[in-house]
């Protein structure tokens, strides 16, 4: 499981050559070299269909005490300056003949990266979104960096997720009527309040308030500890200003129920001052505000599913709701046949900028003052930060959620927060990432040339939720992978 997960995470990263060309990874394994001084080293290898030579990074050599001496045109031992093999320059590469390579006597495994993503893996990666909506979103490029042919769609009509059945089972649907067709984005907003949430600690929010645009179905959620007018009025003010600044649109109408928090004099006076028309549901007909109520039901179902599948504590419930909102805005909405981000004029969500909810990571322990103590501390990814280019990470040892970009994905079995569970959030997801017999290019290449290149992965960090800037932001230089070998 560890190796398959590592291979999946490799696919989420971008590898670049010395001239910044992007290189696709197809397979990985190990090559053994027998040097002039009769010593041997096994070096990690990666294969690419787009490069006709095998490539090894200098970091891989330095890890075993070998450097490239350009003056002597040789590989030499770092400690003794002893020549291990001659180096020949071919184009932009420095190459070592594979006559120094030892062919294995038996077939050995490599990890095949070119297998298609399974439906289960994609479904879990994107936080239990309906697989049909995922397919439509990839086809429409609402989700980028994943192509439609990268996924095995067989069985989509019969696909079933037990976590979704557990978290999202509902009564029969309410029959809804028609509404006016609002053509102007961000001008007609539905809102509803959910809560209180029981069984969480005093520091956690008890409620959340959601807003849904009638035209685009774009959604926002905000946490609340109390639901009175004093707490919701600042949120109305914040949202109205945000829409005016970011979308150059004035909110004309808010549609809501007749809760006292909405009908208070304070809130009514604000609407009157801004020229906003409040529309309230009639008595006993809360279903007339069905858009907002269904949004809250969707978020609640997503929240239960994410917490259940990740084994994270209930006190983190609003982070699950926030993560669900980010995803729902990115994927195709069946009522509009488009994604909310696309209708709002925002770029598609880059799949490389998110992690599965609850994914184990290792972060830098900024509280550690001793130079002898370890610097890494275990955390669990929640959702992209809205205030930085970092990620919100739950750190059990610190009992807090921190905003950081200084993290590395953990590729071994996840440390579960539940005593009854010892599985990572990726368990049972990686059927398509398996070990195969390596009668492959890596072994066939043992009679060819192996270039040594300064190739290292560029780990991509996250874009803050709601950002309309699709650019990637580089993460600190704590590389997960240091070694690259390629062969076409």
TrEMBL record:
Any one of the GO CC terms: cytoplasm
Keyword Nuclease attributed? yes
Classify the source by domain of life.
Eukaryota
Subcellular location as annotated: Cytoplasm; Nucleus
Care to name a GO molecular-function term for this sequence?
metal ion binding
Biological process terms from the Gene Ontology for this record are:
DNA integration; DNA recombination; transposition
Please name the Gene3D superfamilies in this protein's record.
Answer: Ribonuclease H-like superfamily/Ribonuclease H
Q: What catalytic activity does the UniProt entry give for this protein?
A: DNA(n) + a 2'-deoxyribonucleoside 5'-triphosphate = DNA(n+1) + diphosphate; Endonucleolytic cleavage to 5'-phosphomonoester
Name the keywords, alphabetized.
Cytoplasm, DNA integration, DNA recombination, DNA-binding, DNA-directed DNA polymerase, Endonuclease, Hydrolase, Magnesium, Metal-binding, Nuclease, Nucleotidyltransferase, Nucleus, RNA-binding, RNA-directed DNA polymerase, Transferase, Transposition
Tell whether Chloroplast is among the UniProt keywords.
Answer: no
Instruction: Give every Integrase catalytic domain span.
Output: 181-349
Pfam families noted in UniProt? rve
Tell me, in a sentence or two, what this protein's role is: Reverse transcriptase/ribonuclease H (RT) is a multifunctional enzyme that catalyzes the conversion of the retro-elements RNA genome into dsDNA within the VLP. The enzyme displays a DNA polymerase activity that can copy either DNA or RNA templates, and a ribonuclease H (RNase H) activity that cleaves the RNA strand of RNA-DNA heteroduplexes during plus-strand synthesis and hydrolyzes RNA primers. The conversion leads to a linear dsDNA copy of the retrotransposon that includes long terminal repeats (LTRs) at both ends. Integrase (IN) targets the VLP to the nucleus, where a subparticle preintegration complex (PIC) containing at least integrase and the newly synthesized dsDNA copy of the retrotransposon must transit the nuclear membrane. Once in the nucleus, integrase performs the integration of the dsDNA into the host genome.
Recorded protein name is Integrase catalytic domain-containing protein
């Amino acid at each position: 499981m560890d190796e398959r997960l590592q291979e999946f995470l490799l696919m989420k990263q971008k590898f670049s050559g010395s001239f910044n060309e992007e290189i696709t990874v197809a397979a990985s394994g190990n090559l053994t070299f027998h040097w002039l001084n009769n010593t041997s080293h096994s070096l990690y290898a990666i294969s690419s269909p787009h490069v006709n030579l095998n490539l090894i990074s200098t970091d891989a050599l330095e890890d075993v005490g070998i450097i490239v001496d350009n003056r002597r045109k040789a590989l030499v031992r770092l400690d003794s300056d002893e020549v291990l093999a001659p180096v020949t320059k071919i184009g932009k590469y420095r190459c070592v003949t594979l006559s120094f390579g030892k062919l294995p006597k038996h077939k050995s495994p490599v990890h095949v990266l070119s297998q298609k993503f399974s439906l289960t893996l994609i479904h879990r990666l994107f936080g239990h979104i309906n697989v049909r909506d995922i397919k439509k979103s990839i086809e429409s490029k609402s989700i980028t960096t994943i192509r439609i042919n990268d996924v095995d769609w067989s069985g989509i009509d019969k696909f079933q997720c037990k976590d979704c059945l557990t978290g999202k089972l509902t009564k029969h649907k309410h029959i809804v009527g028609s509404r006016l067709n609002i053509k102007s984005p961000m001008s007609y907003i539905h809102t509803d309040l959910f809560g209180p949430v029981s069984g969480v600690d005093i520091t956690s929010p008890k409620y959340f308030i959601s807003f849904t645009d009638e035209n685009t179905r774009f959604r926002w959620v905000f946490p609340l500890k109390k639901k009175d007018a004093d707490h919701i009025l600042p949120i109305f003010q914040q949202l109205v200003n945000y829409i005016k600044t970011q979308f150059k649109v004035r909110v004309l109408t808010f549609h809501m129920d007749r809760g006292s928090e909405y009908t208070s004099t304070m809130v009514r006076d604000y609407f009157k001052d801004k020229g906003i028309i409040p529309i309230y549901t009639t008595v006993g007909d809360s279903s007339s505000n069905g858009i907002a109520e269904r949004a809250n039901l969707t978020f609640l179902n997503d929240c239960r599913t994410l917490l259940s599948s990740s084994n994270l504590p209930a006190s983190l419930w609003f982070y699950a709701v926030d993560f669900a909102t980010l995803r729902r805005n990115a994927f195709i909405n069946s009522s509009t046949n488009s994604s909310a981000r696309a209708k709002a004029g925002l770029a598609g969500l880059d799949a490389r900028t998110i992690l599965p909810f609850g994914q184990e990571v290792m972060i830098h322990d900024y509280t550690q003052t001793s130079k002898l103590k370890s610097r890494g501390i275990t955390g669990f990814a929640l959702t992209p930060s809205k205030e930085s280019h970092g990620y919100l990470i739950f750190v059990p040892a610190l009992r807090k959620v921190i905003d950081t970009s200084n993290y590395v994905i953990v590729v071994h079995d996840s440390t579960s927060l539940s005593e009854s569970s010892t599985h990572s959030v990726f368990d049972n997801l990686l059927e398509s990432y398996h070990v195969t017999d390596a009668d492959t290019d890596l072994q066939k290449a043992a009679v060819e040339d192996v270039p040594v290149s300064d190739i290292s992965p560029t780990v991509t960090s996250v874009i803050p939720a709601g950002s309309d800037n699709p650019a990637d932001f580089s993460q600190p230089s704590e590389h997960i992978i240091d070694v690259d070998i390629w062969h076409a």
